[in-house]
Design a protein that fits this description.
single chain, 301 residues, alpha+beta, five-stranded mixed beta sheet, two-stranded antiparallel ribbon, 10 helices, globular, binds zinc ion
Length: 301
């Protein structure tokens, strides 16, 4: 009776079965194959579905931005799709006062047989890195994971992320902006941001810290001092510099032509442009032995 009695299709087991089978045909789990990898075809729908599940299960966790003093900035406005159908921000970094969702993009290697996976994480929940809380976005056989391979593998995802960033995501009663983080190991972060890697003179993809000396040299430096002051805070990298490099390389500039002081070891075009503060490389600090502004605290710990 709640559903309108015998006249309602909701009351009919047959109608329920038909509805269920129709839902199964919704292409949320479909994949399309490219030379580079296999990818799900309905990325926006899958993301919205995952976040809606979290919202209605009351597991959705708000993630505000913080000002330089460490105070949370309240999110007071909903996202509105621009009438021009052009994105208001091209770096996946919406204004702090707009309600947003946090997505991380990472590459993961391993398994049997070994493969490289593109993994999406949803940061608006507890334990976002737990396997069941992530989403497999692409998979290809194991390789050396060169810049060109990573760029080709991520290209379809980047296009979908741009679309998602334009439309925003409806979660519960609100439309929210999309903030993207790069959440990978050091080589993958370098490949995604166009950074040259550990051999560069400025090896950190987040700040402009220089290489640290070896232990013996460090001791000598501590005893006798050095010309270069390694204890100073190095300036962070900026998203405007990464955008500048993308357009420079798209207009066929070369790193040598630009000079070290300009390219700052961003040597191929960045695949995904996000502020360096939204890059979260794993363990590279320990591997590189860097001593720089953004890593100093962790080194002391
Ligand atoms: Zn750093």
């Amino acid at each position: 009776m709640f559903f309108g009695g015998a006249l309602s299709p909701m009351a009919s087991p047959q109608a329920l079965q038909q509805t269920r089978s129709a839902f199964r045909k919704v292409p949320a789990d479909d994949v399309f194959l490219l030379d580079t990898a296999a990818h799900p075809s309905q990325f926006c729908r899958v993301v919205e579905g995952r976040l809606s599940d979290l919202w209605y299960a009351e597991l959705f966790v708000e993630r505000p931005s913080f000002d330089p003093e460490g105070v949370a900035i309240p999110q007071t406005r909903n996202y509105e799709v621009p009438r021009t159908r052009r994105r208001l921000y091209s770096d996946f970094c919406p204004p702090a006062e707009i309600r947003d969702i946090h997505i991380s993009v990472g590459l993961d290697r391993g398994g049997d047989p070994s493969s490289v996976k593109v993994v999406i994480g949803f940061r608006n929940q507890e334990h976002p890195n737990r396997l069941g809380n992530t989403l497999l976005m692409g998979v290809r056989p194991e390789s050396k994971e060169t810049y060109l391979e990573v760029a080709a593998m991520l290209a379809p995802l980047v296009a979908q992320l741009h679309q998602l960033s334009l439309t925003g995501v409806v979660v519960g009663p609100q439309r929210r902006a999309v903030r993207v983080f790069i959440n990978s190991d050091y080589p993958s972060v370098c490949s995604t941001t166009g950074h040259k890697g550990h051999s560069a003179s400025l090896p950190c993809p987040m700040c402009l810290g220089t290489k640290s000396p070896r232990d013996a040299q460090w001791l000598l430096h501590a005893l006798f001092g050095i010309v270069q002051d390694l204890s100073r805070t190095h300036p962070p990298r900026t998203v405007s510099h990464i955008k500048e490099m993308r357009s420079a390389y798209e207009s066929v500039e070369t790193p040598d032509g630009l000079g070290l002081a300009t390219h700052l070891p961003i040597e191929p075009p960045p695949v995904i442009i996000v502020p360096p503060t939204q890059s979260c490389p794993f363990l590279f600090i320990c591997l590189l032995g860097l001593r720089c502004g953004c890593c100093g605290l962790l080194l002391r710990l």
